[in-house]
């Protein structure tokens, strides 16, 4: 319960900060002339797809927080909890996901300056690193099974497979969107569209990396 309250507080602070930057306190009826955004040809406000991504990440964050809370509660609920050995592969996988997130960050920077080749390389590196991460997660499953911890062997192993599978499914969903962005880049789509798509992919990848840090720390704790 404390984890849920903390999460809601963090989300509330982020939402308040975001709203404060949307000129909600401005008084347009007192402004003279044409707004700067219009003179520059920009559309004021946040693109709906970007707002939708943030809402989606908030929902996923709430789900992950529930998993973390349930994990901690179940760990101290009974004496049948047997901690699983932390697969050494998880450390390598963490590095792969960090590399993937950094590659998307570089792609976002290249999109801002309009360097199409840099966008393509960043997207390809990020996607391949993410695929390697998923393959490494499967190998980590194999390591845990080799230690005698199946899906239903112990509550700790059940949680291990559940939370890593949920994180992996969200990463697969991100790879689908990443693939579409790479396809648009190869077809020569307008730079404005590529900037937005690359920014959304990078934002989602950074989010998944933070989620993985939290889950990995949880597994080490358990």
UniProtKB/TrEMBL annotation:
Highest taxon above the source species: Bacteria
Membrane-traversing stretches: 51-72, 84-107, 119-139, 159-183, 203-220
Subcellular location: Cell membrane; Membrane
InterPro entries in UniProt: Cyt_c/ubiquinol_Oxase_su3 (IPR024791), Cyt_c_oxidase-like_su3 (IPR000298), Cyt_c_oxidase_su3-like_sf (IPR035973), Cyt_c_oxidase_su3_a-hlx (IPR013833)
Chief location: membrane
Coiled coil segments of this chain: none
Classification via Gene3D superfamilies: Cytochrome c oxidase, subunit III, four-helix bundle
Membrane topology recorded in Swiss-Prot or TrEMBL: Multi-pass membrane protein
Family in the record: Belongs to the cytochrome c oxidase subunit 3 family.
Protein name as annotated: Cytochrome-c oxidase
Species this chain originates from: Neoroseomonas terrae
């Amino acid at each position: 319960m404390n984890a849920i309250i903390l999460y809601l507080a963090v989300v509330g602070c982020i939402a308040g900060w975001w709203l404060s930057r949307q000129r909600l306190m401005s008084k347009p009826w007192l402004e003279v002339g044409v707004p700067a955004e219009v003179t520059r040809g920009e559309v004021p406000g946040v693109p709906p797809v970007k707002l939708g991504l943030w809402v989606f990440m908030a929902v996923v964050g709430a789900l992950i927080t529930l998993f973390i809370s349930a994990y901690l509660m179940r760990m101290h609920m009974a004496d049948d909890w047997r901690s699983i050995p932390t697969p050494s592969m998880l450390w390598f996988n963490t590095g792969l996901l960090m590399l993937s997130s950094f590659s998307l960050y570089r792609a976002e920077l290249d999109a801002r300056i309009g360097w199409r080749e840099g966008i393509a390389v960043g997207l390809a590196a990020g996607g391949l690193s993410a695929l390697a991460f998923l393959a490494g997660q499967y190998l980590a499953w194999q390591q845990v099974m080799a230690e005698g911890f199946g899906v239903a062997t112990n509550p700790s192993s059940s949680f291990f497979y559940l939370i890593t599978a949920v994180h992996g499914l969200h990463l697969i969903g991100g790879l689908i969107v990443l693939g579409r962005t790479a396809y648009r880049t190869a077809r020569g789509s307008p730079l404005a569209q590529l900037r937005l798509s690359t920014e959304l992919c990078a934002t989602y990848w950074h989010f998944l990396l933070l989620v993985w840090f939290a889950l990995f720390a949880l597994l080490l704790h358990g």
